[in-house]
Amino acid sequence: MPASRSSRRADMAAQPTCFQEADPRLALWRRAGVEGLGTFALVLAATGSGIAAARVFATLPGMILPVTAVAIAAALVGLIVALGSVSGGHYNPLITLLQWLGRERSGVCTIAYVAAQSLGGVLGGAAAAALWGGPNGSTGGLGWHGMGGELVASAGLMLVVFGCMRSGRADAGPFAVGAWLVADILATPTAAYANPAVVFGALATNGPLHLATGSAAPYLLGEALGALIAFGFIHILFPAGSAA
Fold it and tell me: Residue 191 above 70 pLDDT?
């Protein structure tokens, strides 16, 4: 027993001590990586939904702020529930810095978190601009221009689903998934099909969700690539045997 206790103390001392994570012994690069990834997704949802609202409600500018607010709130719910146990789910340098000022987070951990959050924010904004740089959404889908949107939507959805499962928050999974999809639908130019079955159904229907045959392949490819990317992230962020 004494040896076990000393081993645990050694593990805790091997890296900066952080608070509010489920397992502060988890490698700092993993925890900071979650902060960067979460901030990327949050900013993508915020800026992407703003671009979408500006296009859809060009004659009703008063709708832009409410749409963006819904997307941000929904994205935060999904991201905090799914990934928050790994890093604390800050996705905001102000939270991290105040913890440091309150002596609740080490300086090294604070620097790593803030750097990851800042980089994630820049990349999220750039990704939104790139996704919405193609043609506007229209009946029949976006063809190959829609592959990026489906990749992002599917990767985010799989991260939320498996993040809830691996972090012991499976009971909150339906709530987190629904919240994330609200943000995704508002923030991506494809309206986040993020599901091959939905793509197949869209080929057979009419109306706003209808997809032309030429859009099916790129949408399905984007979804498959997004799922594979999420699979890789899940295995990095939730390593086997971790107590996330």
Answer: yes
